[in-house]
Amino acid sequence: MAGVEKPYRVYRGGRVKGRVPLDRPLRPGPSRDGQQREKPKIQRPRRRWSWKRRIAIGVLLVLLLVVIWSVAGYLSFRGGVSAANKRLDRMAPSVHTVLSHQNGAILSHPTTILLLGTDHMNNDQRVYDFHSDSIMLLRTDPSKHRLAYLSIPRDLRVDIPGHGPSKINAAMQLGGPALAVRTIENFTGLPVDHVMVINFHDFRKLIDNIGGITIDVPEPILSNPFDCPYTVQRCKTWKGWRFAKGKQHMNGWRAQIYSRIRENQLNPADTDITRGERQQQVIRAVESKLVSFGTFFDLPFNGNSLVRPLATDLSAWQFMQLGWVVKRAPGSKALHCRLGGSSDSSGTSDIIPSEDNRAVIGEVTGAAAPQPPNRALGFFAPGCYVGGTGPTR
């Protein structure tokens, strides 16, 4: 019985009569209904993507998104820098002729940038109405991953080309950024490669746009009354701005007030020199915030506004190089220096330059080791500090 064909087919659901169907190859030619036969389609099982392939595609998509985001941010930032360049051209058309021509890129060569702080509205209608409120040199040293900040007291008496001895901040008023560059180059012997004119009014808006900054206040401060925020009646008894000791987060207005304090009622040794140190703190905190990843992600939206407080000759690409240099320079290695001297014996508010200023300039360039100010020389003694150290710490 085993060789006899069974008159039924066996299925799971039961039995059906008939021959067992066999898979036979299709014969070429037309079928019974006259249509051409087609080869049967073989369905192959779909392969699932491996984890390696999924990760690789994910990484490529992320890289593509970063590139697109970077290009959009750069274009937005470049537009703002172009407007800043035009502001400087209107403010000081001849400044480019007095700047030193740097041999090499900021990314790989030491660069000196003059920062001039003004307290006027930096817009197209008042670009010629400038007043120098702070003077600082920023020197980068990419090979050593170090930044050096040199504050110059605005009351320091120097020789202004074509005008004779006067306070150094008078150079800005007499001849704008071009004369300020010439005066500072002649006095310090440092070639100035670039210049930034910073409008403090818009600078506080910049600090607000980047989410504020964190400042480590070295000692309690009670300033003399200025810019009272209260009513006239209350301002009569208001004692001044207060800052507690230690780290604190500041918005733009608070940071601007902190950087403008010239006298501390709790410390008679606080002078315009220590005000320069507070300004260095604010500048350093803003730089650190600007080169953070949070600012990078916001570039396509606010890249144009980041340079609104500035009038400068730096191009967008040079700003990018400067940002990378700042990013790689740790705050613990930053050099905070100041020029100084002694009080004028004739009773004026001028500061007579000290011979020690030459040594400080050598420390800024790296030719000599940093030395702190000599307290025996008085409140206006020049000197340098490394990292977070300072005379009030």
* Broad structural category: alpha+beta
State the CATH topology: Aminopeptidase
Model regions low in confidence, pLDDT < 50 over at least 5 residues: 121-129
| Strand numbers in spatial order across the main sheet | 13-8-3-4-5-14-17
User: Secondary-structure element sequence?
Assistant: EEHHEEEEEHEHEEHEEHHHEHEEEHE
Radius of gyration: 35 Å
Number of helices: 10
Task: Give the biggest beta sheet.
Answer: 7 strands, mixed
Provide the CATH top-level class.
Answer: Alpha Beta
Q: Helix share of residues?
A: 25-40%
Global mean pLDDT: 85
Multimeric state: single chain
Strand segment count: 17
CATH fourth-tier homologous superfamily:
LCP protein
Shape-level CATH architecture: 3-Layer(aba) Sandwich
How many structural domains can be distinguished in the coordinates?
Answer: 1
Euclidean distance between termini CA atoms: 109 Å
C-alpha geometry: elongated
Notes on the structure:
Strands 13-8-3-4-5-14-17 form a seven-stranded mixed β-sheet, sandwiched between helices. The protein has a two-stranded antiparallel sheet with strand order 1-2. Strands 6-7 form a two-stranded antiparallel ribbon. It has 393 residues and is an alpha+beta fold. The longest helix is centred in the N-terminal third of the chain and has 41 residues, at 51-91. The protein has one domain (63-216, 247-386): Aminopeptidase (3-Layer(aba) Sandwich), CATH 3.40.630.190. Strand 1 and strand 2 form a beta hairpin. The chain has ten helices and 17 strands. The chain is elongated and about 125 Å long. Helices cover 35% and strands 20% of the residues. Mean pLDDT is 85; it is low at 121-129. The termini are far apart.
